[in-house]
Write a structure and sequence with these properties.
The complex is a heterodimer.
Chain A: E1 2-7, H1 14-24, E2 27-32, E3 44-47, H2 69-77, E4 81-85, H3 87-95, E5 101-103, E6 111-119, E7 135-142, E8 146-148, H4 151-159, E9 163-167, E10 178-182, E11 188-191, H5 209-218
Parallel strand pairs in A: 1-2, 1-3, 3-4, 4-11
Antiparallel strand pairs in A: 5-8, 6-7, 6-9, 9-10, 10-11
Chain B: E1 2-9, H1 16-27, E2 40-45, H2 51-66, E3 72-78
Antiparallel strand pairs in B: 1-2, 1-3
Classes of the chains: A alpha/beta, B alpha+beta.
Chain lengths: 222, 83
C-alpha cells in the first residue's frame, strides 16, 4: 500500500507522519504542495501537522487552496483514504472534505500535552483495531483545536457514527468533546491529536501505531 | 479602486479572544462593556474601476478564500480611489 505525505511551507510533522506510515509497512512518498498530481497508485494521503503558511488568514486556509489540493480532493472523491492530523485536520475542513471548523482554543492558550482519547467508533479502517470505547494516551499540540459546527451537523455526525475520537477531558472547548471525525464514506479522518507521535517506545508509548497498522490491513482498494 | 472586507465570526459562534478582551477591559475599569467580538479587516487594492464588477469580484474572493462560511460572515465596503 502506498502513502503520500504532503509538505506545505510551515509543515513540521510531515517527517513524523511519513515515518509512522513507513514503520506501519506503507511505501511512502513525500509530495511538495506545488505538485499537481499524487504519485500513481497512492492509497492514502497524509496531511501533516504544523503551521502551513504560518497560519496566516486562518489555520489551513491557504494550504487548502494550494496546487496539490485538487488532486487530494479527487483522490477522496474516488474513495481514496486521507488522514489529516492537527493542521492537516484544519486543512481538510478548509477544503470541505470534512464538515465544521477548528477555532481558537477556548482557554486561548496553546496546549501541548498528552491527553486521554476515547475511541468513539471502531467502524473505520483507521480505528478497527482498537477496543470500542478504549481510552488511549495521545499527544496534542495546538492553538486552534476547538472543533465547531452547527447543531444539525453535530447531530448528523453523531447519528451516523462519524465521531472517531473524543477527548476524555476536553482540553480546548471542542463541541461535544470531538477530537476527530470521519467523512461520510468513512475514508477521510481528521483529528487534532497526533497518533504519529505515539508510535514508538521512545515516544513514551505506542498506542498510535494501531491506527496506521489497522489502516494498512483494512484498506479497500479505491 | 480599494475595497475593505470585514470578516467577523457569525453570531452564536463563541469568540474566546473577544471574551478575553472584554475581561481585560473590565480589569482596566471600563465598566458596562457587555460584549466584545473580534474580527479582521482586509484591504484590497484593485485594478477594476467599475464598482459593481469590483464588488462582485471581492464577493467571489470572500467566498473562495477570505472568509470561512462555516464560522464567519463578511461585509464589503468599496472605498474608491486611493490618493
Amino acid at each position: 500500500m502506498r502513502a503520500a505525505v504532503i509538505t506545505y511551507p510551515g509543515s513540521n510533522c510531515d517527517r513524523d507522519l511519513a515515518r509512522a506510515f513507513d514503520l506501519a509497512g506503507f511505501e511512502v512518498a513525500k509530495v511538495w504542495h506545488k505538485e499537481t498530481q499524487l504519485p500513481a497508485g497512492t492509497d492514502v494521503v497524509g496531511v501533516p501537522g504544523g503551521f502551513s503558511y504560518g497560519d496566516y488568514l486562518r489555520c489551513g486556509a491557504i494550504a487548502a487552496r494550494s496546487a496539490i489540493s485538487p488532486a487530494v480532493a479527487a483522490h477522496a472523491a474516488r474513495g481514496g483514504y486521507v488522514l489529516g492530523v492537527c493542521n492537516g485536520f484544519q486543512v481538510l475542513t478548509e477544503m470541505g472534505l470534512l464538515p465544521g471548523a477548528l477555532l481558537r482554543n477556548a482557554g486561548l492558550k496553546y496546549v501541548c500535552r498528552v491527553v486521554g482519547l476515547t475511541v468513539a467508533t471502531t467502524d473505520s479502517a483507521f480505528t478497527a483495531d482498537y477496543d470500542p470505547g478504549v481510552v488511549i494516551p495521545v499527544p496534542i499540540a495546538h492553538h486552534d483545536g476547538n472543533y465547531t459546527a452547527d447543531a444539525a451537523t453535530l447531530d448528523r455526525l453523531e447519528a451516523d457514527d462519524r465521531v472517531a475520537f473524543r477527548y476524555a477531558d476536553n482540553p480546548n472547548g471542542s463541541a461535544r468533546d470531538i477530537a476527530g471525525i470521519l467523512s461520510e464514506n468513512r475514508r477521510v479522518l481528521g483529528m487534532m491529536p497526533h497518533p504519529e507521535r505515539r508510535f514508538e517506545a521512545a515516544h513514551g508509548g505506542t498506542e498510535g501505531a494501531a491506527l496506521f497498522r489497522a489502516l494498512l490491513g483494512q484498506m479497500a482498494p479505491a | 479602486m480599494k475595497a475593505r472586507v470585514h470578516v467577523m465570526l457569525k453570531d452564536g459562534v463563541l469568540d474566546p479572544q473577544g471574551e478575553a478582551v472584554r475581561h481585560a477591559l473590565g480589569t482596566l475599569g471600563f465598566e458596562g462593556v457587555t460584549g466584545v467580538r473580534q474580527g479582521k479587516v482586509i484591504e484590497l487594492n484593485l485594478a477594476e474601476s467599475d464598482p459593481a464588477k469590483a464588488e462582485a469580484a471581492v464577493r467571489a474572493m470572500c467566498e473562495k478564500l477570505l472568509a470561512n462560511a462555516v464560522i464567519e460572515k463578511f461585509s464589503i465596503e468599496l472605498v474608491g480611489e486611493i490618493a
